Each structure stands twice: as structure tokens, then as C-alpha cells.
């Protein structure tokens, strides 16, 4: 009798955690969303709403607002959480500040959020475009308040000084995660360097803001430490939201955080000295950003 080898079935891959009901969002629809979509396309503008697959795009664009991404849509970093394309940027449009300012004027935006990709290959990290964009917006729409969500300048503090000197009301720099996960989540960044960037921004007299994604494997104690570190370095405003895997090539979600824990972190942050904490599964850096303008410096 011929004996055939016993073939063991392959172990099943561990099931990915299923997205809970509290993370379900509506598709972007409606005439106001369509109007903003058309305006962004006609002006050849990049928005982090699209590039970052933001779950709040329908809500924000439906209200006639958007977060503009300057300095192109290709980033020199390769963070494992981010949907923005990575590569060698070939775009450096000196006319972009004018176009962004004119689009904001046309849209009648009361509060604008400006962000950008990392441009590590530029000597000034793109600081001149940052500065001119803010100045142009203020010239055309003096009543519009502005938040700039600036990247890591890799300790180029002269570039930072230029970026934060345009007259914006809020200056944000996201630490993104707790210190122990930096090598996994932000391999080309440094936790202490981001803290120093926030500290220098605060020392210059500005309203400071940062954001952390939850569900990457952080512990409660690590979250408490991160909040303490941020307070010690002069942070005013913190946003906390759920990390969502943008594609199968990106870092998987370690855990879906329950809304009750988000509420707990909000209370903890306020107890530890933060002036304002926006915390919830669908919160992103620019979500309800207009509320942060009035936080006392």
C-alpha cells in the first residue's frame, strides 16, 4: 500500500480586527461638497483631505472648508501610517501661495488649515513658501484665521523661525505616536526632536498644537507620559484620534479604541495641564480646528 505524506493545513492568518460601528462614516455628498471639489480641482490644489483619506472629508467639505496641502503631494519621508505618496518631489511651485490665498478668498473660508509634505531635500525645508502662503492669505482675507500644521524641520531652527512668522493664529506639529513606537511609525523622525520643535514654537510666543493617533499598540502609561512630555514642552492643544490603515501596505491597526477611552484621555489631558483636548475615534488634526483659535496662549 502506498503511503502518502500527511500534509498539514497551513495555519490561518490571524484575522484583522473588524472596524466597529463607531468608525463608520458617510460618503461625501451634497452640493456644497461638489462646489469645493470643483474649486480645488480647477485651482490645481492639493488637500490632505484627499491625500490622507480623511474620514471627515464629507463633513468638512460639506461645510465649505478644507485643509490645503502645499509644496506638492510627494513626501520625502516614508512613515508607515501615512497614505501620502513617498518619493523624490519634482514640484516646487512659487505661484502656489497666490493660488491658495485666492481659493480661500473665493470659498469664503473663515478658518483655514495649511499643511505640507516633508521636503527634506530643500535647504529651507520649504519655509519660504510656508511664510508667503500665510502672508498672502492674510492680505486677501484679513478676517480669516489660520492654522499651520508644519512638518518636522530636522532641527533646522532657522527654517522653523521663517515658517512660524507669517501671522498665523495656531501652529501645529504632530508627534503622531508615543516615543516607544517612533522607529516603527516614524522611522525618519525623532520623538525628542519633535518635542523640541514644539518647545521652540511656544518660546516664540505662539499657540501650539499637536496630534496623536491611537490604536498603534501604545499603552495607557505611554499615553500619560506623552501628554506629560507635551505639557512640559509648552503644548496648548492636543488632538487624539483612531489610526486607520490606509492600504494593505501600511501598518495594521493594533486595536480599535473605544470612545469611552477617548473620553478618559481627554479628561486626563486636561488634568495634566493641556488647555484643550479634542478626542474621539474620528478626530483628525484639522477636525473642528476653528475652535482652537480662541484657546488662551
TrEMBL record:
Binds 2 [4Fe-4S] clusters per subunit. One cluster is coordinated with 3 cysteines and an exchangeable S-adenosyl-L-methionine. Its EC number is 2.8.1.8. Pathway: Protein modification; protein lipoylation via endogenous pathway; protein N(6)-(lipoyl)lysine from octanoyl-[acyl-carrier-protein]: step 2/2. The keyword Glycoprotein does not apply. Keywords: 4Fe-4S, Cytoplasm, Iron, Iron-sulfur, Metal-binding, S-adenosyl-L-methionine, Transferase. Gene3D superfamilies: Aldolase class I (3.20.20.70). InterPro entries: Aldolase_TIM, Elp3/MiaA/NifB-like_rSAM, LIAS_N, Lipoyl_synth, rSAM, rSAM_sf. It is found in: Cytoplasm. Residues 61-275 form the Radical SAM core domain. [4Fe-4S] cluster 1 binds at residues 49, 54, 60, 286. It is an enzyme of class 2 (transferase). The keyword S-adenosyl-L-methionine applies. [4Fe-4S] cluster 2 binds at residues 75, 79, 82. NCBIfam families: lipA, PRK05481.1, PRK12928.1. This is Lipoyl synthase.
